[in-house]
TrEMBL record:
Keywords: Oxidoreductase
EC number assigned by the record: 1.-.-.-
Protein name (database record): SDR family NAD(P)-dependent oxidoreductase
Spans through the membrane: none
């Protein structure tokens, strides 16, 4: 049974991906900061182990890797956990230095550190690293400078990792605009009900895993298997 670690798995895209892999017969180590939320969201899912903690904490990252070792290895690491930053989104000229540092700690430093810790297992199993990114990493949207910069940094690190690690595939995956709490926080007071739910694009992960494209940037919706309603 293949094994995945998914961070930020208590809600939104992370939970949708966890449900998708669980239904497909994967073992999933589900991570999120708040234990009650994580356990409540995943307790009914088969072959899902909830491991609550903060991915910015080195000890918690070690616990996640140890759990993968107990399950026999690691085939997929999904770096999904992330932060938006201040809400409403500030212009670049007004972003506080500490807010920017905090964003990079969560969105760049933590996933890179977890990836580094997972590499020995991923190399052995010729596994996959999936960094959840955003179109804000490659486009200039007003207010999205700080968040987009953190995602652009993660993307570039992932691109280079994909060149350096011949035994590991590294995908930068853009899920698109989704109806999530984070996206609502980016547009406080606005109606975002026109955005699709994360469950509509989560099957794209199965398409990626089935086709196994080379390291690179992908849109999740482009990989939804034929016959699956998006």
């Amino acid at each position: 049974m293949p094994t995945a670690i998914i961070t930020g798995a208590s809600r939104g895209l992370g939970l949708a991906l966890t449900r998708t892999l669980s239904a497909a017969g994967w073992s999933v180590i589900a991570d999120a900061r708040h234990e009650a939320d994580l356990v409540g969201a995943t307790k009914a899912l088969p072959n899902v182990v909830a491991v609550a903690g903060d991915v910015t904490d080195a000890e918690h990252r070690s616990v996640l890797i140890a759990q993968a070792e107990r399950l026999g290895g690691l085939d997929l690491l999904v770096n999904n956990a992330g932060a938006l930053g201040p809400s409403p989104l500030p212009p670049v000229g007004a972003v506080a230095g500490q807010a920017l540092r905090d964003l990079f700690e969560v969105n760049v430093v933590a996933p890179v550190a977890l990836t580094q810790a997972a590499l020995p297992l991923l190399r052995t199993g010729r596994g996959v690293v999936l960094n959840v990114t955003s179109d804000a990493a490659v486009e200039a949207y007003e207010g999205w400078g700080a968040y987009g910069a953190s995602k652009a940094a993660l993307e570039h690190l992932g691109k280079v990792l994909g060149v350096e690690e011949s035994a590991v595939t590294v995908w930068q995956v853009d899920p698109g605009d989704l109806r999530t709490r984070m996206h609502q926080d980016a547009f406080p007071g606005e109606d975002i009900s026109d955005r699709p739910l994360p469950e509509s694009v989560a099957p794209g992960l199965l398409g990626l895993l089935a086709q196994r494209p080379s390291s690179g940037r992908h849109k999740l919706a482009d990989w939804i298997p034929t016959g699956v309603n998006a």
